[in-house]
Amino acid sequence: MQGEKWLLGGLVLAAGLLPVPASADEIANYTPVTAQRLANPEPGNWMLYRRTYDGQGYSPLDQINASNVKELVPVWTFSTGVTEGHEAPPIVNNGVMFVATPQNQVIALDAKTGEQMWLYKRKMPEDLFQLHPTSRGVALWQDKVYLATTDDHLVALDAKTGKVAWDQKVEDYKRGEYMTLMPLAVDGKILIGGSGGEFGVRGYVAAYDADSGKELWRTYTIPGPGEPGHDTWQGDDWKTGGGTAWMTGTYDPGLNLVYWGVGNAAPWPGGLHPGDNLYTSSVLALDPGTGKIKAHFQYHQNDSWDWDEVDAPMLIDLQRNGQTIKSLVHPGRDAIFWVLERSPDKINFVAGWPFVYTNVWKAVDPETGRLTVDPDHKPGLGKRTEFCPSLWGGKDWPSASYSPKTHLVYVPAQNGFCGGFAGIKEPLVPGQLWLGTKPEDIGLTIQPGTDHHGELQAWDPATGKKVWQHNFPWQLFASTLATGGNLVFVGGTNDRMFRAFDAETGNMLWEQKTNSGITGAPVAYEVDGTEYIAVQSGWGVDAQRIQDALTNDKTGLSDNVPQGGVVWVFAVKK
């Protein structure tokens, strides 16, 4: 294995980026973003991470469909000017596109022509160490744009000019605290969660006033003394227990609850933090007004595999056994496809099954959903332990999507990748990696007998039946988009392709090679009666690290996937 090369490869020291003044061409006639518009967005806009609060990653637009997608061509491109992983969906509000990139940059573009309207670049501290140099997007509220930065600030920009309206420090980046997520706007509050579990921090979700930047509440994902769940930790382990919440949540306006995914415990070996370790590797139901935890479900206890479960569950109304279930659907990094039920004060287990190969779990309790672990595949101290899937899981942070037309969930899965490490006990040094293992000891291996690894899977979440699957030789590491035209779009492969599939059959209908690999989320939007598909191409971060780990004589795989960010926008040729 490539050892430290693939874990730390691609990390950058961001320094000297100066704020760029807004363009003289101020955006005219900007449409303010209201609670009503976010709760019921116009079909032609994409204003939230997965377009709608329910996180389904679905656009009802159907101008581009299975009959004409072969005529899809690039209509404009825009170079972002930076390298590393471009993971943010282009955010579109009535003809204005906001693109977030690595290096804490936001670009406002004309969504029809690609012309730049303004550019914001944040000046970065010279001593900043970015473990995951990326951004997953900006939030919109009223006349502002909100960016969570890797030096751990929340910044509000004037949507018309790109000028800073306010800048609020959230935590101290020198302790390893940073942010990569797209903030979530809910009723005048901007919700965020932090990264940094690899540095032994204590995770949280926090809310800020959208107008002033004042912190309104902060809820720690690891309960302190006297709080429910604190007894699932021993001694002072809770103070440095990880559980970071580094992806955007979903929201149920009817229940007025935000559902937020929580990462793994720190450090990695479970023996260093005995107990179930609530609320790590869980989903939390939070009151957005107060931050109070109203309910939770823990996907797996005492995480020892670096299996963050930060990808927020999709809210889907399922017809199951003659009943409508208000469900939470989450294809997990732990290789289990989870179906849960949400209510005002509880999250119930409904069903769970493996969607990729795993040797870690022996069983799923049919009543509670609690997993039975195979101790032979649970890393501990002093002995190297192998497990499948790898630490990147059956599906990492890239999001699945759901189509209400086909009633299927489309999962960007990885199968047949395994890994392992030996746990060690080491002191915590603030601001330094604290994994509980040596970076050079971490491996990525291939399960014997596998002939492919990436899988675009289509599942019926009501029945647990897999409807179709398309295989890729190596990894599939990007979010999916489902559309009303019965299409599924996805990048994520190291051949730099962007592809469209028939949502009902899985037949590949179209592909386009881009400048780099795509790890970002595609979106669909409409301007002046024309539907567009947009995505950022820009390889890096975890996709690059997987690539580096696989690069050797046995696989014959090259690590030469060019980096460099470009926004690609497509429409049907006229």
CATH architecture label name: 8 Propeller
So how many helices? 3
Secondary structure class reads: mainly beta
Strand count: 38
Ranges with pLDDT <50 over ≥5 residues? 1-24
**In what range is the share of β-strand residues?**
35-45%
The major sheet is characterized as: 5 strands, mixed
Describe this structure in words.
The structure is a single chain. The protein has 574 residues and is mainly beta. The chain has a single domain, classed as Quinoprotein alcohol dehydrogenase-like superfamily (Methanol Dehydrogenase, Chain A, 8 Propeller), CATH 2.140.10. Helix content is 3%, strand content 36%. A five-stranded mixed β-sheet has the order 1-32-33-34-35, with no helix packed on it. Strand 7 and strand 8 (144-148) form a beta hairpin. The longest helix is centred in the last third of the chain and has 10 residues, at 541-550. The chain is globular, with a radius of gyration of 22 Å.
Please sum up the structure shown:
This protein is 3% helix and 36% strand.
Please render the helix and strand layout as text.
Elements: H1 4-8, H2 35-39, E1 58-59, E2 72-79, E3 91-93, E4 96-101, E5 105-110, E6 116-121, E7 139-141, E8 144-148, E9 153-158, E10 164-169, E11 184-186, E12 189-193, E13 204-209, E14 215-220, E15 250-252, E16 257-261, E17 282-286, E18 293-298, E19 314-320, E20 323-331, E21 336-342, E22 347-354, E23 361-364, E24 371-373, E25 384-387, E26 401-403, E27 408-414, E28 417-422, E29 443-446, E30 454-460, E31 465-472, E32 481-483, E33 487-490, E34 497-502, E35 508-513, E36 523-527, E37 530-537, H3 541-550, E38 566-572
Parallel strand pairs: 1-32
Antiparallel strand pairs: 2-38, 3-4, 4-5, 5-6, 7-8, 8-9, 9-10, 11-12, 12-13, 13-14, 15-16, 16-17, 17-18, 19-20, 20-21, 21-22, 23-24, 25-28, 26-27, 27-30, 28-29, 30-31, 32-33, 33-34, 34-35, 36-37, 37-38
